[in-house]
Specification:
- This protein is mainly alpha-helical.
- The chain has one domain.
- The protein is 76% helix and 0% strand.
- It has 7 helices and no strands.
- Helix 6 packs antiparallel against helix 7.
- It is flat.
- The mean pLDDT is 90.
Length: 126
């Protein structure tokens, strides 16, 4: 396996960013739909409502882009190096959830995010 180059680090960060963006789009779409009620609406109608919500559909497409990028990275970089970087998506999503969605992010979550950042820094130095 090749040593990670700046190109692959950029692809890893692209993967992380698109992964986080997909989660944010999925949340926005599902927030528009509200609580799902399979019993009242039925499975087929619910599935179509979810899949064809523009934000959900865009989020799913973004996941495909993220996965393609990740597969490219995995073809050249060790899994034990590349995969932990995906945890940085938690950092992006938590910040976005707080600022854009007004979600409560308490001290324990902030401490968890700090540990994720520290751990990823250690892995990047290996």
């Amino acid at each position: 396996m090749a040593q990670p180059s700046s190109l692959y680090l950029a692809l890893i960060l692209f993967t992380v960013t698109t992964n986080a963006a997909a989660q944010i789009m999925l949340k926005k779409g599902m927030s528009q739909l509200g609580s799902l009620n399979l019993a009242a609406d039925g499975l087929i109608w619910t599935a179509f409502s979810v899949i064809f919500n523009p934000w959900v559909f865009l989020g799913l497409c973004t996941f495909v882009v993220s996965m393609a990028s990740h597969l490219t990275v995995l073809s050249r970089v060790q899994l034990s190096f590349a995969y932990p970087f995906l945890s940085l998506a938690y950092v992006i999503v938590t910040a976005w959830a707080y600022f854009a969605f007004g979600e409560d992010v308490g001290a324990l979550r902030i401490a968890g995010v700090a540990l994720i950042c520290f751990g990823t820094l250690l892995i990047s130095m290996s």
